[in-house]
Amino acid sequence: MTGDEANPVVGWSRLHGEDVSASRLVVGWLRFVHALARLFDRVHPDVLSAAGVVVAGGAVVAAGAGGRWALLALVLVVATGVFDGLDGAVALRTGRVRPLGAVVDAVADRLTDLLLVLVLLVLGAGAWWCAAIGAAVLVHEYARAKAQAVGMRSAGAITAAERPTRVIVVAIACLGTGLAPGGTPVTGWSWAVVSAVVWAGCTLVGFGQLAAGVRRELSGRPWTGPFASGRSDQAGDDPR
Question: In angstroms, what CA-CA distances link 224 with 147, 158, 173, 227, 235?
Answer without folding.
Answer: 13, 26, 45, 8, 15
